[in-house]
Amino acid sequence: MEDLTWTGSLGTFLDPLLFVLVPLFALAVVARILLSFFEPDTGTQANPDGTLVATGGIWSLSARIMTWLGAALVVLVLLYVVLGVVMGTGAGILGGISQRLTPVWIALIVTFWVSIHFKRRLGLYGKLFDSTIGMIGFGLVMFWVFVAVFTGLFDWIATHDALSQVSGMKNKGPGIPLRGAEQGEYPYYLLGGDNLARDVFSRVIKGSTIVIAIAPLATLFAFMVGITLGLPAGYYGGKLDTLLSFLANLILAFPVILLFYLLVTPEIVLTGLPQYMGVVLFAFPLIFFGVLIQSRFRTQPEKNSLWLAIVLIPLFLAYMSLINEDGSKISFWPLDFFDINAGILVVFVSVVFVNSPTVFRIVRGLAMDIKTRDYVAAAQTRGERPWYIMLWEILPNARGPLIVDFCLRIGYTTILLGTLGFFGLGLPPESPDWGSTINEGRKLLSIYLHPALPPAIALLSLVLGLNLLADGLREESLRD
């Protein structure tokens, strides 16, 4: 069995086009940037929406050339993917990867088609598809979400077990065939082997499930804490605001990485401190939804009791299962439906604890501004209670900045998880998370690039997608 090249048989006719288009597109972008410094006022005109468009001359020509070359490059990349799905390893390493990602491509196509078709009915999410930057960011984020879903639930994408070692594959390069591959076993390490003869491609794919599971959930919990405390601090002000702001500033005064070192060290973990912190922090979703429902249906007792039961009972059972762990400081609850790895729980608690004060300050500032609006005064005149005003008048009108910050904060959390894995904090040493994989590959980076680059590129692409998605949401929210 021969070694795979990057593009296989596709390389004979697509690679020359790629090698021509990439430098031409780069030159076109640079030329466009340089020409923009000398563009005269007569070369542009204003659109009704306030944007500017080139009207002629070399400036208009440069813009068109850049657009054409960019479109040609996109078409070429799509050809690599589509032909790779059809040909598999016949199209080289990229073909093998594209074929393994077939469920992801299908899910992305369906998601984009449905979203664009019904975008006028989908509110802010639908408006996202009017922004090119937003769509690119959304595509990058959803790519990794679908990778994590199809890997975690069905294990359709990874070619090998993330922890299994194959003799003779230590530090082997991308596309090297396995020696003595058995019947039904995937015959290649598509992105090569690491220093322990494990498949780099499978570790990157499996690592996405850890990042996608922890980062959004930890950010959501941090928002529950920040919103529940930030709204009354900004609305009431006074001593409550002073006390909560002091505590938030006290936490923010600690260097983040030092705080993580303190929370994840074995001695601190053995004391049960992270678990006790989880008892407090994980209760905030219960408090938030309980107050949300109570404030909305306070005057309708039957509906109020029904919704409280529907929402709070499952949340309470999940909460008790989350904080309860056999053999730990808290292990009294009999209905334990799931167990979370102790290392992951510590990291989760640490991320929530570090992010909550920043969210608190954002929500507090928004509440202080919005509470002065006329519709809040109207609600007060109607005799609405403070929590109703905070949750049903102030919070919905603060959703734009909060949604944007939520996307950005998931990116920060992803970087934070990568940093923790890189330093070997919290997560198990054999974990395939991207930070740990980068750290393992770093040790031989001067000799072998392939173990460290794929997880680094994966981390970069996810964070870039989240930032572009936040930019797209910001653009569309400002137009409301």
Write up this protein.
It comes from Pseudoponticoccus marisrubri. Residues 208-470 form the ABC transmembrane type-1 domain. It is a multi-pass membrane protein. Keywords: Cell membrane, Membrane, Transmembrane, Transmembrane helix, Transport. The chain has 480 residues and is mainly α. It has two domains: 1-100, no CATH class; 208-478, MetI-like fold, CATH 1.10.3720. The protein is built from 19 helices and four strands. Strand 1 and strand 2 (52-54) form a beta hairpin. It is globular and about 75 Å long.
What key phrases describe this protein's structure?
mainly alpha; 480 residues; two-stranded antiparallel sheet; single chain; MetI-like fold
Quick synopsis:
By secondary structure, the protein is an all-alpha fold. The protein contains 19 helices and four strands.
Distance between the termini: 59 Å
- Count of discrete structural domains: 2
Portion of residues in beta strands equals under 5%
| Helix content class | 55-70%
- Topology as a string of helices (H) and strands (E): HEEHHHHHEEHHHHHHHHHHHHH
Rounded radius of gyration (Å): 26 Å
- Adjacency order of strands in the biggest sheet: 1-2
- The best one-word shape is globular
SS class: mainly alpha
CATH class of the largest domain: Mainly Alpha
CATH fold-level label of the largest domain: MetI-like fold
State the low-pLDDT regions, or none. none
The biggest beta sheet reads: 2 strands, antiparallel
Any idea what the CATH architecture of the largest domain is?
Orthogonal Bundle
